[in-house]
Design goal:
The structure is a homodimer. The first copy, chain A, is an all-alpha fold. Chain A folds into two domains: about 5-130, Farnesyl Diphosphate Synthase (Orthogonal Bundle); about 135-305, Farnesyl Diphosphate Synthase. In chain A, helix 6 packs antiparallel against helix 7. In chain A, about 75% of the residues lie in helices and about 0% in strands. The longest helix of chain A is centred in the middle third of the chain and has 28 residues, at about 105-130.
Chain lengths: ~325, ~325
């Protein structure tokens, strides 16, 4: 997996704080015992890109905050919340791997994973309670409500080719953008920023997050296995109808639509079964179409940055919005 | 299932507020759509005893509060949190039924259940955030950390006859007593009670909750199927070593211990396989021994009520502590 921070120097100005976040993320495991300590350690182990903590820290810096322990605590809480959702998502998706390693679900079963996800989420809430800012708590609790509602909607619309773009965007916004937006909002709030800057950063995070997820959904149709650790077309295999397929459906000939309808009904799709889908993706230029939508959202994200003074932190957020587009290619 | 409130008049003085709690608990479903609305409605449907909301309301009343919408909101949040843990517990225990009906897990699968539990928990947090009392938030977030840690410990110690009384009590305290204690503490805090009364009610709830769970664990060895909706010895069947068995192990002859060791290793225990266990429970008087411990904890709970003025609410809490002992027999 590409290490965003180290490889691209994007997070250089918050490198020290990100290290402190890493140290802070080791606490829930070391404070626990036995099985809980092991699984929590697995769930919080570094290896992720830590984008959400970075967003929070950069948003705070962009609003003029001098970094302190409070920002590190909030950034760590954000990542704990994210880790909790990943652990539960792996149950939902029945995922064997996560970042190329066995998922908690695969190693310890859904029984343990449900509880450890709950534990991490509770520890995140506890950290926010200790911070004692109701606007920040509100931002995160709103985000988690959106996330879970969106994930249920996604389940409900599995294998459903009638999914519209607006429903798809509702899912994307809830499952990915809401927490990124909350992280940016929390950073701005922790910096004591003005209302307009708080809203600008929240809107930046929301649009960035939508772009981020759209890139993910595009990557699913092109990424090489060794990069993402999962085969091409795995979203479709799981019944997830994402933007590339929605794009095809809007333009598809009767024959191509019938092909998609047959494929989506088929229970266990092999790589060979998916070859016609890959052909449709090529033919209807579904990936470039998705990337145009990505650019649209990332452009909107950047507009919101214009409200902020031109500081290194603001520039880093700007470059992050560019890098999101390029990741993993 | 015995309806505590209606059958025994225990909750008469808060009957109106409990009705408002019921109405409030219908909101998360009506505010949602599709699958989410259905499963949330299922999770929050009345049928439970609503003991936690009742504890919160009675604790507030016992501290002199005049009931208002705030208490109803907090009581509803407590029940949402409880409902979330039940939905997740059914995944952990792979439970087919809950209160005699198919569990969410059985009806919609663990995929949906994980998310709906998360949704309800997030809505509970959101309700607490709207209430804006950090001491109350802190009480509930501490409780959920304890609950999840205890549930993981319970999983870790499944089938482990070496479990000690202190570990068992740690599990019981975390998984059941912590939330009851938080409910009582929250009620007292919402009433603006003095520090000593807040602590007294929290301690009452904690001891009551331990007693409550111990009764549950005793019931598992005696309850008739039609009452609890699950067969006798189901805890042991699931590998849960509870107080009755711990009591036997402390006194068991070498032969009886060997019998237990054989049983606990056996993968799929039938009712007939469990007959020797039921014999041990009889012979070592494991149920009366458990009930002595119950009386010990309920007695401790009542001592804490002595710090409160003798009001109808305090009397109701007192009677609740007596009724807990008798429920479902």
């Amino acid at each position: 997996m590409v290490e965003l921070g180290t490889q691209n120097g994007l997070f250089t100005i918050i490198a020290r704080e990100l290290e402190q976040v890493e140290a802070r993320l080791r606490a829930p495991a070391t404070e626990s015992r036995g099985l809980l300590a092991v699984v929590v350690g697995h769930g919080l182990a570094s290896g992720g890109k830590r984008i959400r903590p970075a967003l929070l820290l950069l948003a705070a810096r962009a609003c003029g905050a001098t970094m302190n322990g409070r920002h590190v605590e909030l950034a760590a809480a954000t990542e704990m919340m994210h880790a909790a959702t990943l652990i539960h998502d792996d149950i939902v998706d029945n995922a064997a791997t996560r970042r190329g390693l066995p998922s908690a679900m695969a190693r310890w079963g859904s029984h343990v994973s449900v509880l450890v996800g709950d534990f991490l989420f509770s520890r995140a809430i506890q950290t926010l309670v200790a911070d004692s800012d109701f606007r920040i708590m509100g931002a995160f609790s709103q985000a988690t409500v959106s996330m879970t509602a969106a994930e249920v909607l996604q389940l409900q619309l599995l294998h459903d080719l009638a999914i519209g773009e607006s429903e798809y965007l509702e899912i994307v916004t809830g499952k990915t953008a809401a927490l990124m937006s909350a992280a940016c909002r929390a950073g701005a709030l922790a910096a004591g920023a003005s209302e307009s800057r708080v809203e600008a950063l929240a809107a930046f995070g929301l649009n960035l997050g939508i772009g981020f997820q759209l890139v993910d959904d595009a990557l699913d149709y092109i990424a090489r296995e060794e990069r993402l650790g999962k085969p091409v077309g795995s979203d479709f295999r799981e019944g997830k109808i994402t933007y590339p397929v929605i794009h095809i459906l809007r333009r598809a000939s009767a024959g191509d639509r019938a092909l998609l309808e047959r494929l989506v009904e088929q229970p266990a799709l092999t790589d060979d079964d998916l070859l016609p889908l890959r052909d449709l993706v090529e033919r209807y230029e579904a990936v470039p179409a998705t990337m145009r939508l990505v650019d649209d959202y990332l452009g909107r994200a950047r507009v919101h940055l214009e409200l902020l003074p031109d500081t290194p932190a603001c520039q880093a957020l700007h470059r992050l919005s560019e890098f999101v587009r390029e990741r993993d290619w």
